[in-house]
Amino acid sequence: MEIHGFNKTTLLDYPGHLASTIFLGGCNFRCPFCHNSSLVLNPAGQPTISEEEVFKTLNKRKGVLEGVCITGGEPTLYSGLPQFIDEIKNMGLKVKLDTNGQNPKILKDLIAKGSIDYVAMDIKNSKEKYGLSIGIPNFDISKVSESISFLLSSAIDYEFRTTVVKEHHTAEDFISIGKWIEGAKAYYLQAYRDSDDILSPGLSGYSKEELISFANVVKPYVIEAGIRGIES
Ligand code: SF4
């Protein structure tokens, strides 16, 4: 596993749990609003942390930590992911997986084996504008759709989430997303934040009020909808 970041303690990444977060390099999408672009475009150029070091720290924090969040990049690109997760689970920790949904097979296998406890899957945009928001024109959304359908029918805890960008998303897109994920347990709109590591600089975010209005558009379709990442 190419581990490029390790946040020893977070209360934000794994809802309701004190967790560590592991960042893996590489991604098969090119979202213009990606704020980990160096991990996506040049993972080999980023410093790495050994698995040994990560497990040493997790062991030291046994009894304090409740879970581990595995994020990226896109974690499901790694063939060694199931084994890596099993090692974490064997320590008695819960595992949350962040994914872009492009690998439904790994997702299904991990859930079937009981290897993961929570999934956060990105919904980048409405079906019609998916390619725009992942930087891949004419993108075939079938695998993303398969992951959505699978999570909707699964007993695992999960959330869907969208990073909301003025240049990409309109109220109509949220109606479309709501219909696509109809019946979902939880959906969150995340405020876009500029940073030095944005893949395509020059994008902008909506105000808190605008995000709330978009969340209200999705609410009729899902059990819970909310906003994240913007101050009150
Ligand atoms: S936002 Fe996520 S899915 Fe998109 S390029 Fe970045 S790491 Fe990949």
TrEMBL record:
It comes from Anaerocolumna aminovalerica. SUPFAM superfamilies: Radical SAM enzymes. This is Pyruvate formate lyase activating enzyme. Keywords: 4Fe-4S, Iron, Iron-sulfur, Lyase, Metal-binding, Pyruvate, S-adenosyl-L-methionine. GO terms for molecular function: 4 iron, 4 sulfur cluster binding; lyase activity; metal ion binding. It comes from the Bacteria. InterPro entries: Aldolase_TIM, NrdG2, Organic_radical-activating, rSAM, rSAM_sf. Its cofactor is [4Fe-4S] cluster. The keyword Iron-sulfur applies. Residues 12-228 form the Radical SAM core domain. Gene3D superfamilies: Aldolase class I.
